[in-house]
Amino acid sequence: MFYTRAERDRLLKAKSFFLGEIHRNGGYISLNEVRDEDEFRTEDGRFFVAYQKRRGSITKSLNAETLRLLKEGGLISRKDDLRRNRKLGVQNRLLLNKLLRVPAKRGELPS
User: Fold this and answer.
1) CA–CA gap between residue 36 and residue 78 (Å, rounded)
2) Closest CA to 99 of 42, 30, 21, 45
3) pLDDT tens, residue order, the chain (111 aa)
4) Is 87 exposed, middle or buried (0-12, 13-18, 19+ CB in 10 A)?
5) What's the CA angle centered on 81, arms 92 and 61, to 5 degrees?
6) Non-local CB neighbours of 60 within 8 Å, separated by 6+ positions
């Protein structure tokens, strides 16, 4: 669920997005695809997007090495950026595909 309609709409337009689940001592990053574009009302006023992890991708733990790769690749400048920026540019997609071992879809170039 997302706090703003704009954030939800960005994900719907992108069709796939990365999700950083940040915990006190680490966390996880995964690549997800939107599965349902219907409008849902929630009691707390958030905006709902149904998604699932992209088939074939792995979920990666956010250890020091993973965070270093994400910073060097320009995806984030600090760990909190994983909460704010979920969109995938071309360079971001190539980096995440390699990191999360995502298989190429038909018509995509292998990374």
Assistant:
1) 31
2) 30
3) 667 777 777 777 777 777 778 877 788 888 888 887 666 667 777 777 788 888 888 888 888 888 888 888 888 888 888 776 666 667 777 888 888 887 766 545 444
4) middle
5) 75
6) 28, 29, 30, 66, 99, 100
**Measured between alpha carbons, how far is 100 from 48 in angstroms, rounded to an integer?**
25
CA–CA separation, 2 vs 46, rounded Å? 5
Kindly report the pTM of this predicted structure: 0.62
Neighbours of 6 (CB within 10 A): 9
Domain boundaries along the sequence of the chain: 5-100
Tokens at 45, concatenated: 């006023």
Report which of 49, 95, 60 is spatially closest to residue 74, judged by C-alpha positions: 95
The residue to which tokens 């699932």 are assigned = 52
Residues 10-31 pLDDT 10s: 777 777 777 778 877 788 888 8
